[in-house]
Amino acid sequence: MAGLAESGSNPDVDLLYDINGLAKDAPAWSDRVMEYVGEYGLLLGIVLLVVWCWWSVRRRGGEDAASTVAALVWAPLAAGIAVLVNVPIRGFVERPRPFLDHQGLEVLVQGKTDYSFVSDHATIVMAMAVGLFVAHRAYGLVALVLALFGGFIRVYMGVHYPTDVVGGFALGTAVALLLSPLAMALLTPLVKAVERSPRAGWLVRGRGRAEGEDTVIPEARTERTSERDLAA
Asked: Mean pLDDT, to the nearest integer, of 139-156?
């Protein structure tokens, strides 16, 4: 697999130098920002999107609240499973980091000694973004944009080849989508059981949003109003 890292007319390496060259031309403060965003910021952003989506769903309630929350639970689980699947892939390919085989790269993060293919960061953010897209299209689209930007930053930082990122995107998407039917079949009944729980039901449906409550209260008010009218 060493041929994956050889230069020459390899478009993968050419694109690596083109994107990483942007880091050389950027000011130092900009590279520090990109370093933080690439290592932690975008992943944190997608996690916050999942939490925000959950909060919105539980406040709104509705008949599909349980299935949506189940899909949100699946998003981080899919990321974890995808990373585990990547362990044997990395060991089989054994692709060194690009800065070990190519000179002149601007490496923004030091100390990366593990293998390069496929990118764990790209795998995690894409798996979570796809899982969020399954749960909620609008939030999912935002997460997908963040995931794509995150993959670009990994190359910008000089720690991955473009194909490392593409491989991570493919792996994260495959795990999130292919295992989604099984995950939903297992998680949805569990989330519905939580929804019925007096103590933990708030995790799925906000207080005052229990099923049928919105119809019972108006009817009760109508009946009381009718009784007052008759008495008058």
From this structure: 94
Closest by Cα among 209, 164, 219, 229 to 58 = 209
Q: Where are the alpha helices (DSSP H) in 26-136?
A: 28-36, 42-60, 65-93, 98-101, 120-135
d(CA 165, CA 156): 11
**What Å distances lie between residue 209 and 25, 119, 127, 160, 222, CA to CA?**
54, 42, 31, 47, 20
Asked if residue 2 has pLDDT above 50, the reply is no
Q: Are 13 and 7 in contact (CB under 8 A)?
A: yes
Q: Which CATH number fits domain 10-207: 1.10.10, 1.20.120, 3.40.50, 1.20.144?
A: 1.20.144
End-to-end CA distance of the chain: give it in Å, rounded.
90
Mean pLDDT, rounded, for 76-86: 95
Task: Report d(CA 117, CA 106) in Å as an integer.
Answer: 19
